[in-house]
């Protein structure tokens, strides 16, 4: 069950966060069940589940994943409101995780066609955890701290000088670095990275002179570091 669960989680992370453009999300929210992007999204999940499982029962497991995914997404699109999007995001993801666990249990024990070391649970777990720390973790952090977005960003000048999407990619890189440090047992490097980021951020926060902005950045940073550390510990604990 364990390796099937990890593979289905990997397929879900790719389908829901990495390979789903923002335009698809906007189209689904606007047209709901009439959106063709909803059905493309479900088809993508079916294909990914089939490819990653690659066993004699892959097609039935992938189809079941697709059916569950459609029902959950349809319910979310129907019932969520502008003021409940954050709540529905977590309900949606928890329900997807539950269905993945159920399908993994139902189809455990099926022989995989992946050869040699490619079928090892630890390898898949390390890959899945690393992927989680990219776009999925960035999305989760953004949703969590959205309620505390300060009225004024760092500053108008800072915004103009900032690279496009730089903050998101910096967050991804820092989480991946922490992940590597934890996997290799270099926890002191995590503290060094946190100190280095604090020094670089200090000038911007001091210039902004906004305590809410400082708290906002601090919450985001601690969430990012915490998620990366826990994920690394879980991946290191896989047998």
TrEMBL record:
Entry-linked Pfam families: DUF3307 (PF11750)
Keywords, comma-separated and alphabetical: Membrane, Transmembrane, Transmembrane helix
Protein name per the record: DUF3307 domain-containing protein
Membrane-spanning intervals of the chain: 89-108, 123-145, 176-196, 216-238
